[in-house]
Design a protein that fits this description.
Blueprint lengths: L1 H23 L5 H17 L33 H22 L7 H25 L2 H114 L1
Helix pairs in contact: 1-2, 2-4, 3-4, 4-5
Length: 250
């Protein structure tokens, strides 16, 4: 039993990696990826009382369920749940091989994989709920019917919500790129306007500087002329005064 539990855990882990690889390749596998991750966690929590999972204390993953009234996580897991999981994966592999042979309908691999991942999660959720309250096989049968009805009705809605969110994220990404492009265009226009303005202002400033320099030169020349005239007038007055003094002495 320990080997069987370990092998099935490795299969679930491999399923997670396959879904992740398909999602990275932009295939519609996001619902299946979410289901497979939750299935792996639920499996580790449910069979946490069996070796080798007891060594990693995986039953602790069910600790949040302790907040439920009258729920007990110290239950004993049953092997039949793992058989149901193996049966679902066997059917999935058979369908995959038949579809792989007929390439013309290969596009149905993705929804089948998502459905199988959701079915395995539903089986484990039912097993955990039944074991938490120790309802036995009657409770397991009732939970199976309820989950089947909910799952078959909700799976389409869940996938629709995921697709809507993906399209919304793509739309917001495009809008953001357009906004950034508009901002970049405005920045380029402002930079171009500043550059053209500087090109117009530089000649004007240079002309103004030349005019100021010419005016300063004119004022300097006028000042020199006035100083020269005043000096000549003073020299002439001085000469006259000396001549008058000389004539008076005679």
């Amino acid at each position: 039993m320990e080997i069987w539990i370990s092998v099935l855990a490795l299969i679930l882990l491999g399923s997670v990696f396959l879904f992740l690889s398909a999602w990275i390749q932009r295939r519609p596998q996001l619902p299946g990826l979410i289901f497979s991750v939750l299935t792996l966690l639920a499996y580790l929590g449910y069979y946490g009382d069996r070796a080798p999972l007891t060594h990693i204390h995986s039953r602790g993953l069910l600790t949040p369920f302790k907040v439920l009234p009258h729920a007990s996580t110290s239950f004993i897991s049953v092997a039949i749940v793992s058989y149901f999981l193996a049966a679902i994966y066997a059917v999935r592999i058979i369908i995959y091989r038949r579809v792989a042979i007929r390439r013309r309908i290969a596009h149905i691999i993705d929804p089948i994989a998502n459905f199988a991942a959701g079915a395995t999660l539903a089986v484990l959720i039912g097993a955990i709920i039944d074991s938490l309250y120790h309802w036995g096989w009657v409770g397991a049968l009732v939970i199976a019917v309820v989950l089947a009805a909910i799952y078959l009705g909700v799976i389409g809605l869940f996938q629709g919500i995921i697709e809507v969110l993906e399209q919304l994220a793509s739309y917001l990404h495009i809008r953001l790129k357009r906004l950034l492009s508009k901002i970049a265009i405005k920045a380029a226009e402002i930079a171009s306007y500043i550059a053209s303005l500087s090109q117009r202002l530089v000649p004007d400033l240079k002309n103004l500087a030349d005019k100021l320099e010419a005016r300063a030169e004119m004022q300097r020349q006028e000042y020199d002329r006035q100083v020269a005239e005043e000096d000549a007038e003073l020299a002439e007055r001085h000469t006259r005064n000396q001549e008058r003094q000389y004539q008076r002495r005679r």
